[in-house]
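Working notes for the structural subgroup meeting. M.R. asked for a predicted model of this chain before we commit to crystallization trials. I am recording the input and output together here so anyone reviewing the notebook later can reproduce the run.

Input as submitted:
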Amino acid sequence: MPAPVRGELADLNVFLTICRRKSFRLAASELGVSTSALSHTMRGLEERLGVRLLNRTSRSVVPTDAGEALLGHLETGFSHIRMALDELDHYRESPVGRLRINIPRDAAQLLFAPVLAKFMSMYPRLQMEITVDNTLVDIIGSGYDAGIRYGESVPKDMIAMPVTRKLRWIVVASPEYLRNSAHLPLAHPDDLLEHQCIRMRLGNGTLYKWELNRGEEALALDVPGSLILNESEMIIDTALNGFGLAYCLDVRVRPLLKSGQLIQVIPEWVCEDEPMVMYYPSRRQLHPGLRRLIEMMREATLY
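Returned structure, recorded in token form:
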């Protein structure tokens, strides 16, 4: 076996990142270097090891048999290295290093916007990257340290820590829509089936059934509607403009309800659902920076 040379671990991490992202371009973006630099690194690594590690085409990057064998050992080895470095974080007064988090847009607006500037000012040695993405991603495979999602959607093999209380979902409409549809009943959730509803596609690709409860009664309605959106702000804006009924978090529309721009309909029917949670792989210790971010969010969160 060739003797290790200076930078060998860094080059092996390049190989690991390329395999994880399945793309030189995406790996280069994550590592903050050019694709040509990554190609140069891989050529040098393969020459030193005396074996081809990657099969590259114009459309894909896949490890060779030798690369697959190496990859399995590297994933275990680098996992142990990360755990060892995480241990050191407990001896530091202030979080340092890099923290990558994947979050939905609702979390960006409700949880991060109120605390992010203050948090980064408090911990200037911490480098944080936040990706806003409503799609449920594999945070391990995509190179994230943690993610935020609604509790029920988090994979069972993850550790999940609530950052909000249980969330309340309601049905709202604009006064204009209610005037235009005054001839249609709107006293019971079943009446929603006669209305224009703004449907919602979840991050896992499924269309959401509007869940509504009244005491012990619980319904999940596959509501009708000619418009499907996957982003809360667009749903709320479209409802504001009088297009139809919207199903949304009450914390997102409280000012609009107070001003009368939106009106809650069938108000005795709501859904108390799972909180938003910060989740991370169970095999990793909680990053100190993540712990302090969660604490700050909980202190700032009123919902």
